[in-house]
Design brief:
The chain has 210 residues and is α/β, with parallel strands linked by helices. The protein starts with a strand and ends in a 5-residue tail after the last helix.
């Protein structure tokens, strides 16, 4: 992508005199005009964040987004705009290749305590999705009662489905290899999402149908 794409908006309606719309729009236009940006970003509350490292945390705060593992690409420091050039992606050297027909069939399963094994197996058995995202706790922990998660992962792999473990927490990375149950999952072919957000993981699992 050889040009900037900046998503912005406002939390307070533009109809109000104290709306954040005008400031967000002006900062977005200014940063887009600098010529350094060749990626997709989100700008709110005087911070520009890398879009694929960002998740939404609030529906009414003036900064509704957070980038847990990637510092801002640009921000207002006092009355100055600071662009972190060393964090920007380099400009592409070739032409952009677009995948116009991406499969949306990625199943996301939020793991909860005492999740029923039959329900979990049914979700895996009856889906047409080619990839499954299991959202665990903390560093990727999951309920081990009755072996529900392990059985579901085994079933998915037998069906040649990609299985990725994410975490439901915003900070910290998935590391299921640090305990026995997690190592057994890795042996079945389950992949760790590390510090990627759930949204980013889903998008990376979409497959081109071209």
């Amino acid at each position: 992508l050889g040009k900037p794409v900046i998503f912005t908006g406002c939390i307070i309606s533009p109809a109000h005199v104290h709306s954040d719309f005008k400031r967000n729009l002006i900062l977005s236009m200014y940063l887009a005009s600098l010529g350094n940006l060749s990626e997709v970003t989100i700008l709110f509350a005087e911070q520009m964040l890398r879009a694929n490292r960002t998740t939404k945390i609030s529906s009414n705060g003036l900064q509704p987004f957070v980038s847990p593992h990637m510092p801002p690409l640009a921000s207002m420091i006092g009355k100055h705009i600071r662009l972190e050039k060393h964090r920007l992606r380099p400009a592409p050297k070739g032409r952009i290749v677009l995948c116009r027909h991406m499969s949306a069939l990625v199943e996301v399963i939020i793991l909860v305590p005492s999740i029923d094994k039959d329900v979990l197996l049914s979700l895996v058995e009856n889906t047409n999705a080619q990839a499954i995202v299991l959202c665990g706790f903390g560093s990727g922990n999951f309920p081990i009662e009755c072996g529900a998660v392990h059985a579901a992962a085994m079933l998915a792999r037998q069906k040649n489905k990609t299985v990725v473990i994410c975490t439901q927490v915003r900070y910290g990375a998935v590391n299921i290899s640090s305990y026995e149950a997690g190592r057994q999952l890795i042996e079945t072919g389950v992949v760790e999402a590390r510090d990627m957000t759930i949204e980013c993981t889903v998008m990376k699992l979409k497959r081109s149908e071209e």
